[in-house]
Amino acid sequence: MTQPYHSLNYTPCQIRQVDFLPPLVPCDRCGQDARRVDVATRTAIDIDLDHPAVLAVRVSVHYCSPCHHYFRAQPPFLRRDAIFTRRVVRKAIEAVSVDGLAFRTVGQRLARDFWVQPSEAIIRRWCRGYHTGITLDDAYQEWIVAEFSGILCVDELYVRFVLPKRPGWSGMGG
Description:
Layout: E1 14-20, E2 24-26, E3 33-46, E4 53-64, E5 69-72, H1 86-97, H2 103-114, H3 120-132, H4 138-147
Parallel strand pairs: 1-4
Antiparallel strand pairs: 2-3, 3-4, 4-5
């Protein structure tokens, strides 16, 4: 039985063919130049404003003769072993860190704006990986110390204090 063209589960999408076929790349194990011996296809999901965009990425397969190792060339717009492009990851991280969205709403926003909907768990993993990659090196800390004025402003201050016990008062309003 054929499905009607405008069924509930039908979403038109565009499939784009992308080639990443360098003739020589350094081996990911030993660093020696490895020649292309074959071509493989990876599938990736990218952002688009009009409809879902699925990338059929043809990548070159290389063989390193010194270490007898086959490997695929890594396109710069895809992370290793990932289905979403770096642009999708960047948009999700920006939605959390710049726009201040909650993790659970980022997927819905990306679905509305760009036709992709990664899970809340993967968005959390992307943000965690992004934030662990931020390091405050010594030069940055020296700059902070040099630029610090010595005045600390406190926006809100909470002080915990204990009321003296009064006879007959339970502290529960009675």
